[in-house]
Amino acid sequence: MAKAIWNGVVLADSDQCEVVEGNYYFPPDSIHPQYFQPSNTNTVCGWKGTASYYTVVVDGQTNPDAAWYYPDPKPRAENIKGYIAFWRGVKVEA
Fold first, then answer.
1. Checking DSSP bridges between strand 91-93 and strand 2-6, what pairing results, if any?
2. Residue 73 φ/ψ, nearest 5 degrees
3. What's the first-to-final CA gap in the chain, in angstroms?
4. Edge-to-edge order in the sheet of strand 61-69
5. Phi, psi at residue 8, to the nearest 5°?
6. pLDDT 10s digit of each residue in the chain, 94 long?
7. HSE toward the beta carbon, residue 19, CA cutoff 13 A
8. What number of CA atoms fall less than 13 Å from residue 52's CA on the CB side?
9. Distance of alpha carbon 64 from its chain centroid, rounded?
10. Contact 71, 52 (CB under 8 A)
11. How many Å apart are CA 68 and CA 55, to the nearest integer?
12. 3-state secondary structure of 73
């Protein structure tokens, strides 16, 4: 079971993660949505496509763009469509 934790709070947990380039991608139904706010940030990966981001909010503290996902990935990354990965201090325990 993998868990994503920030500020002592579990943001997501699942035993159905996909690991890509060392990052754990959590299924969309495994996140605790109350901690996620949509962001306007987008980045582009040459083989995965365009990523969208979430800002994580826990107890009034924000971690901008700490989670990302590919809503419409390129064909080679179809297995992570909609799955959420983390960085910026979010600890993933597996």
1. antiparallel
2. -70, 165
3. 6
4. 36-45, 49-58, 61-69, 84-86
5. 80, 5
6. 999 999 999 999 999 999 999 999 999 999 999 999 999 999 999 999 999 999 999 999 999 999 999 999 999 999 999 999 999 999 999 9
7. 7
8. 14
9. 12
10. yes
11. 9
12. coil
Instruction: Check if the beta carbon of residue 84 is closer than 8 Å to that of residue 28.
Output: yes
79-90 pLDDT per residue, tens: 999 999 999 999
Q: At 90, list the tokens.
A: 């979010």
What phi and psi values does residue 83 have, to the nearest 5 degrees?
-75, 150
Residue with tokens 């709070």: 9
Instruction: Count CB neighbours of 75 within 10 A.
Output: 7
Tokens of 58: 């826990």
Please name the residue that has the structure tokens 């201090």.
Answer: 89
92: enclosing H helix or E strand: strand 91-93
